[in-house]
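Possible regression after last week's pipeline update?

I re-ran a chain I had predicted before the update to compare outputs. Posting the input and the new output here so someone can diff against the archived version. Not blocking, just want to make sure nothing changed silently.
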Amino acid sequence: MNNIAIPVKNLTTANLDSISRFAQSPEIVEATKNSIEQYFSVVQESFMRVTQSNAFSQLNQALASNYQRFADEYTKSVLGLFSQGQDLLRQQVEQGNRRFEQITEAGNRVVKAGVEAGADAANEAEDNADEASSKLEQISKGKQGGRNQR
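New output (post-update):
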């Protein structure tokens, strides 16, 4: 009795073997490794360029300046509404401005820490990519060694 599924099974098995050999060939493993390394390198370089750029620095300064200007304008509006007790209010506003400056400085430190953390994450991702690429090479060498022994 002939089973008509056997040719389909044989074709599928042969195709899977062919695709597996292709995917594990040294050229494809090397190309994959290079692509992964280039991707993470581009991501890391782009991230570092943006965060270290004058534009990013100017953005942070502009935002801080905008908030400072807002605080000053708001303070003046509040002072206009409450003419009585101006000395006390002025002291509170000055204290608020000092606190706002401290918050702005803390925000800048947080941004800087975020940039450093992002760089660390990009470096870790690149290390992981190198490790994955190395494992692919080991698998490929193992498959090739197994074929050579046959």
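Follow-up from reviewer: compared with the archived run. The longest helix spans residues 86-149. Marking as no regression found.
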